Amino acid sequence: MYDINFFKNSSNLKKRITENLLSQKDAEDISAELDALRDKVPFIYNIETTNYCNMKCVMCPRTMFMTRKNIWINDGLFDRMTSEVKTHNQKSLNEFWNWLEKDYKYNPKEVSENGFYFSIVSKSLVLHGFGEPFLDKKLIERIEICTKKKIPTYFSCTPATMTVEKAKKAMDAGLGVLKFSLDAMDEKKIQKIRGKRANFSEAVDKILELLEYKKKKNLKTILVPCMIDLAMEETDVEMHKDFLKFWKDKDVFAYIKSQDNRWLYENDEKLKSKSHYSDQYCEYPWLSLTVMADGNVVPCTQISNNELVLGNVNNNTLEEIWNSKEYEEFRKMHVTGNFPKGHKCKDKCDMKKLYQYLS
């Protein structure tokens, strides 16, 4: 989840920035205003429960770059971090969604990438990072902990790593949202993208069985078949249409997701992001943070190999890290553009930065 109040309250400043009404001479004032608007107690966007994975996905940086040790999160650390998760009550969420529709001119109920971000991610703790959640031996226990603490949960998986039995247990434990990565509709192509373990027909059979189970037990888990727009071939546009048509009359939230960080196709000019921030700038420095399986705190979900660590919860509290000098300097870099040479945000991320809008 993320700070919906910051998203809402900073919208006027964001508009002035993205309309190029401000310049670098305003950098100090912009930094001060953003700092005044952000919550001094951080929102946890996601907790990585494991970075173990047996897939070979071409679009994933862990496949090409990750050298950090594979681990599962420590039980005590997970319990401690979930005790620090701040959730949004229904009144606040309703106010946010009403504001989106009235002032932001966006329907949060739309079944799309943006709709998913605004209606689901806004209220859910994400339980995946650079590993497959179903490879976590204690996944069900972790979901039960979150359910007991009244924390809405969501994670994404590749169906090849999932057994139907374990998925049913996750749903019974109170999992809020289960997303399935399905990036092609034939075996040869999906295996080219996700590795030899991937199988489209088997994945569909598993999802359909889970839909029957959900209906039979009257469960609330939202099932999300998702396809990433990899812009590999011209025929992919038609495949996307066929994918959405296949799921149209089923009780799912099916959508096409943009490849928002183009690790494999970063030079492909045809690939256009359809996400809500495609014409905006990265807000993660003020919006939320991520806790990795080893306790490292990073600013977003794109830090695969500890290349940008702002603290560790085994040494400091989340609040201390969020309000630290390191985080302060990191936020200023996004406003001024004064990143050190080789910095991840400037050199290895295609999301626009705030400073790029300042003349």
Helix content: 25-40%
Order of helices and strands: HHHEHHHHEHEHEHHEHEHEEEHHH
Residue stretches low in confidence (pLDDT < 50, at least 5 long) are 263-267
CA-atom Rg in angstroms? 20 Å
How many β strands by DSSP? 9
The rounded distance between the terminal residues' Cα atoms is 32 Å
Please state the oligomeric state of the protein chains shown.
single chain
Strand order of the largest sheet: 2-3-4-5-6
Mean pLDDT: 90
- Please give the count of helices: 16
| Percentage beta strand | 5-15%
Characterize the largest beta sheet: strand count, sense, and whether it forms a barrel: 5 strands, parallel
- Estimated structural class: alpha/beta
Large-scale geometry: globular
Describe this entry's structure for a reader.
The protein is an alpha/beta fold and 359 residues long. 39% of the residues lie in helices and 10% in strands. It is built from 16 helices and 9 strands. The strands form 2 sheets. Strands 2-3-4-5-6 form a 5-stranded parallel sheet, covered by helices on one side. A 4-stranded mixed sheet has the order 1-7-8-9. Helix 12 links the parallel strand 5 and strand 6. Helix 3 crosses helix 15. The chain is globular and about 55 Å long. The relative contact order is 0.16.
